[in-house]
């Protein structure tokens, strides 16, 4: 296991067996995200990508009460009070979301308890969302008078569709894990005691598959969610061609013929 050394103890990260684990570590505040935590995420992602030893990333919250309950409002007077502070804070949150959304490898959100507001936005950046049956979801913007930008709403709409996106935003309500599954907001709902094992199995299965194939599939699906005139289909075609020209494709064929598990190297 490789543990990352970070500038804040409110985030934790380590790599094991090709899986990069990121933990929002402020359980006393239901893992509300502080400025230091927003700033740490791009640092972690950069490490995962630059070292090349990570094939899947998992996001989780510390403790048993929350994935992420939103931003840490208690520090706003100190770090988000002046126009300059607001500018820097928004830049930090933007960089965090950009880092998660730019990942070419799969990203899984492992959800327990509260996944509210900014926590929902973080979970929406994941490719797969797996929740315990105690998961609670919501975007309370309408109860706070907040405006919500097109980008965030479109991200939700891409996943649950227009009608459920409207229900979530119009009501500002709290939705159960069962509700989230009905909406298509999450991929799986599992008992609390089975959550970590389920996510670990998903992550290990993906990490053992051909990395170039997985990346090409993620790229194609992501391009499909964009407006037609914004899609870079040439890049997807290049990634698919690279798969066919790879050593992994040869290894996959050999392993199939030899009736053994393939050992993919990502090249």
Automatic annotation (TrEMBL):
GO terms classed as biological process: fatty acid beta-oxidation
Entry's EC annotation: 4.2.1.17
Gene3D superfamilies named in the record: 2-enoyl-CoA Hydratase, Chain A, domain 1, Lyase 2-enoyl-coa Hydratase, Chain A, domain 2
Keyword flag Lyase: yes
Enzyme's top EC category: lyase
Pfam families reported in the protein's UniProt record: ECH_1
InterPro entries: ClpP/crotonase-like_dom_sf, Enoyl-CoA_hyd/isom_CS, Enoyl-CoA_hydra/iso, Enoyl-CoA_hydra_C
SUPFAM superfamilies: ClpP/crotonase
Keyword Lyase: yes
GO molecular function, one term: enoyl-CoA hydratase activity
Keywords: Lyase
Protein family according to the UniProt entry: Belongs to the enoyl-CoA hydratase/isomerase family.
Protein's name in the database: Enoyl-CoA hydratase
